[in-house]
C-alpha cells in the first residue's frame, strides 16, 4: 500500500500541493514532525490562504522519501 502511495506521489503533477495530513499519512509521521522538518528547511513548505495553511509540493515530498520522477 505504501509503495502505491509513493508511486502516486511520483506520478502526480510535480506542482500539485499536498496537505499536512496527506504527507503525514504517506510517511507515517506525526504532523508536528512534518512541521518541524519544514521549519528546519528539510522540506519546503508553502503557505496558502488567509490562515497561512501549510502545503507541500508532491515533487518535494518525493525527493524527501528518496524517489524521483522519471
Would you tell me the structural class of the helices and strands? alpha+beta
| Fraction of helical residues | 40-55%
Tell me the number of structural domains.
Answer: 1
Total number of helices: 4
- Ends distance: 20 Å
Structural account:
The chain has 4 helices and 3 strands. Strands 1-3-2 form a 3-stranded antiparallel β-sheet. The chain has a single domain (2-64), classed as Multidrug-efflux Transporter Regulator, Chain: A, Domain 2 (Orthogonal Bundle). The longest helix is centred in the N-terminal third of the chain and has 10 residues, at 2-11. The chain is globular and about 30 Å long. The chain is α+β, with helices and mostly antiparallel strands and 70 residues long. β2 (46-48) and β3 form a beta hairpin.
Would you kindly provide a brief summary of this structure?
The protein is of the alpha+beta class and 70 residues long. The chain has one domain (2-64): Multidrug-efflux Transporter Regulator, Chain: A, Domain 2.
Strand and helix map with partners:
Blueprint: H1 2-11, E1 17-19, H2 20-27, H3 31-40, E2 46-48, E3 53-57, H4 58-64
